[in-house]
Specification:
Distance between the termini of chain A: 37 Å
Mean pLDDT of chain B: 93
Number of strands of chain B: 9
Structural class of chain A: mainly beta
Number of helices of chain B: 0
Oligomer: heterodimer
Radius of gyration of chain A: 13 Å
Helix content of chain A: under 10%
Order of helices and strands of chain A: EEEEEEEEEEE
Helix content of chain B: under 10%
Strand content of chain A: over 45%
Shape of chain A: globular
Low-confidence stretches of chain A: none
Strand order of the largest sheet of chain B: 1-9-8-3-4
Strand content of chain B: over 45%
Shape of chain B: globular
Radius of gyration of chain B: 13 Å
Mean pLDDT of chain A: 90
Chain lengths: 116, 109
């Protein structure tokens, strides 16, 4: 099946610094990628929808200036957490929809961010 | 997208069938039923999806009632590796996935 790869799988950063998370579709082109956040013992919450070559659409309550999303190619989307704080510590997950398919999205393995 | 209701937890004996129910009484005609699962600290994994006909693949079967207001995911021979949180989502094919709390399935030896 289609593979979506996230990097890094774990990252620890200092408060106030920025962290970039990459989401790559390895064997297909993804016109749309989604970014989720998951706090411990909670469900996934959609943060934003990213379409290649255009600005991301953010869900209500998600700060677009804090969570910068770039989808510059059909195989790569990045999420940058700017000026990270401990409350941004979470599990970040991306998913991708195959170009030309309207079916299920494929999920990355997630990135565990810890801000100290 | 329509909301879904799932039991918070279920147990299943190893080797037996696991039947996970989902209610989606407000589903629209163009919305599909998708099932995903999430094993601890991993990204969700797609299992199966359907519109109104029953579906089967190598992982599971999906039974959708005739009125489409509920569905059941069936894992025919559950193994310990099937212990996970199972999410039922209804959405259009191009729509975004809204995850509820899911059902925590525990497969016991």
């Amino acid at each position: 099946g289609a593979v979506v790869s996230q990097h890094p799988s774990r990252v620890i950063c200092k408060s106030g610094t920025s962290v970039k998370i990459e989401c790559r579709s390895l064997d297909f082109q993804a016109t749309t990628m989604f970014w989720y956040r998951q706090f411990p013992k909670q469900s996934l919450m959609l943060m934003a929808t990213s379409n290649e070559g255009s600005k991301a659409t953010y869900e209500q309550g998600v700060e677009k200036d804090k969570f910068l999303i770039n989808h510059a190619s059909l195989t790569l989307s990045t999420l940058t957490v700017t000026s990270a704080h401990p409350e941004d510590s979470s599990f970040y997950i991306c998913s991708a929809r195959i170009a030309g398919w309207d079916t299920e999205a494929f999920f990355g393995q997630g990135t565990r961010l810890t801000v100290v | 997208d329509a909301k879904t209701t799932q039991p918070p937890s279920m147990d299943c004996a190893e080797g037996r069938a696991a039947n996970l129910p989902c209610n989606h009484s407000t589903i629209s005609g163009n919305e599909y039923v998708y099932w995903y699962r999430q094993i601890h600290s991993q990204g969700p994994q797609y299992i199966i999806h359907g519109l109104k006909n029953n579906e089967t693949n190598e992982m599971a079967s999906l039974i959708i009632t005739e009125d489409r207001k509920s569905s059941t995911l069936i894992l025919p021979h559950a193994t310990l590796r099937d212990t996970a949180v199972y999410y039922c989502i209804v959405k259009t094919n191009a729509g975004k996935s809204t995850f509820g709390d899911g059902t925590t399935l525990t497969v016991k030896p």
